[in-house]
Design goal:
Immunoglobulin-like, mainly beta, single chain
């Protein structure tokens, strides 16, 4: 009997070793079934181990980590980036595959299926005349690399080009075209196919008891696992989709019985995972919209964090407008159960420096906010080491960035009665940090710190209070 148990133990160990040491890492689900704890699950290189809210492990792509965190459905376990295999839950809804989901109202095709890096992509076709056509090009991770809004004339003909510059990499890209409720997806390839999986949902907001058309791309003739989670991380439906010989499938998801809220579509193949979001049954809001951004100044390529509040569980439309008045991007989004929302806006979509505008509307109301975007020039900043008042005789650390190296910078500490000057040492990156001791007999009050580099200046303030004897 002992020999039998020893034999089974050796078989189990051999299976675990062969699936990790030899590079063929099992899925998180299989590892956990073999007794591995969620925190000890192994992921492939450049994938991130995360723990879902139900305690199960997943291995997520770098591009999906932020989506998992923002949805509050998973947390990072360690700092090593890796890739993903998801687990499933238990309630199963009936879904179906349809090869002809809807009549095509946008007919656009690429001049070539595959391009070399640096080439210009060319697209031609036709769409609804005298109507704006929204154009987005996304990479396989769902990142937008190009956006535009074309004004289609009465001929309905479509023709445009996209130059693949240094911001592009080899891989699969998806051209997404939208006119009202109509949409079209055109996959294009730069270089050799990487075999990554991707999904594009026809739109973001769906009505109750409707059907969602989903385009799925990945390795040719492979099975893709499809799971839909609700906002509480419960499984709403799951299925397996077989891709055709071109690595494509069109899938029709029946939303009958889905409650109001946001949902997450998760695709899995081997240890790769991708996630997309959509909503069901959200109404148009009527309450005012309050919005703000996380800073007043940005550089091209930075991310603007948009934060807002309005009616709960409602549809909103976010528009990013460049200094020329051109709408660079349109994003369909939603408010949560508390009426709040947060969304990252990528400034890499535009090339203009100047004053940008974000507009948010909910059908009845609209709000907008303006911020400044600067190009390659540095932004002069200043900050102190704390926000609380300083005592007489205490040290103050004054630091910042963006000083122009061509001129002598000066730091002035001023009140109505007193003035002090410092000449900071500046790094080659324009950063500085100076420590100044408050005089023991300096009068309590509010003092202004002014940093001037001969081109620009910036200020902040601090308070000095009496030093109490201990």
């Amino acid at each position: 009997m002992n020999r039998i148990f020893l034999f089974l133990f050796l078989v189990l160990c051999t299976d675990l070793i062969s699936s990790t040491a030899l590079g063929d890492i099992d899925s998180p689900r299989k590892q956990m079934a073999n007794g591995v704890s969620a925190e000890d699950v192994k992921c492939k290189n450049e994938l991130q181990l995360m723990i879902r809210s139900n305690g199960d492990a997943i291995c997520a792509k770098l591009s999906s980590v932020e989506k998992w965190i923002n949805s509050q459905r998973a947390e990072i376990v360690d700092s090593v980036l890796r890739d993903s295999e998801n687990d499933t839950g238990d309630s199963l809804d009936e879904v179906q595959i349809d090869t002809d989901i809807s009549p095509e109202k946008i007919l656009v095709q690429s001049a070539r299926d595959t391009y070399v890096l640096g080439a210009t992509m060319a697209f031609t076709g036709e769409s609804k005349p005298n109507t704006s056509l929204e154009v987005e090009l996304e990479d396989s991770d769902g990142n937008k690399v190009y956006t535009d809004i074309l004004e289609i004339d009465d001929s309905g003909l479509v023709h445009f080009e996209i130059k693949t510059d240094n911001s592009f990499t080899q891989g699969t890209y998806f051209l997404i075209l939208k006119q009202g409720n109509d949409s079209e997806i055109v996959p294009v390839q730069i270089g050799e196919s990487t075999g990554e999986i991707a999904a594009v949902i026809e739109k973001f907001h769906f009505d109750y008891d409707s059907k969602a058309s989903i385009e799925i791309f990945g390795p040719i003739s492979e099975n893709i696992s499809l799971t839909v989670f609700d906002s509480r991380d419960d499984v709403r439906s799951e299925d397996t989709v077989l891709l055709d010989k071109t690595g494509h499938a069109e899938y029709l998801l029946d939303l009958s019985g889905y409650k109001k809220g946001n949902y997450y579509l998760v695709l899995n193949h081997a240890s790769e995972e991708t996630i997309e979001e959509f909503t069901v049954g959200l109404s148009i809001g009527t309450a005012p919209i309050e919005i703000q951004v996380d800073d007043n100044y940005y550089k091209i390529g930075e991310t603007v964090i948009l934060i807002g509040e309005s009616s709960d569980n409602t549809q909103i439309l976010i528009e990013l407008v460049d200094p020329t008045g051109e709408v660079i991007d349109k994003i369909e989004y939603y408010t949560d159960n508390d009426g709040k929302f947060i969304y990252p806006l990528e400034l890499s979509l535009g090339k203009q420096s100047g004053f940008w505008t974000v507009k948010v509307s909910n059908g009845e109301r609209i709000s907008e906010i303006t911020f400044e975007v600067k190009g390659e020039e540095k932004i002069l900043t200043v900050q102190l080491d704390k926000e609380e008042p300083y005592l007489q005789g205490e040290f103050v650390t004054i630091s910042g960035t963006g000083i122009d190296l061509e001129s002598q910078a000066i730091i002035q500490i001023m009140s109505a009665e007193k003035s002090f000057e410092l000449f900071p040492e500046v790094t080659k990156d324009g950063a500085f940090s100076e420590v100044w001791q408050i005089p023991e007999n300096l009068a309590p009050g509010i003092y202004t710190v002014l940093v001037n580099d001969g081109i620009d200046d910036v200020t902040t303030t601090f308070q000095v209070i009496y030093k109490t004897e201990s």
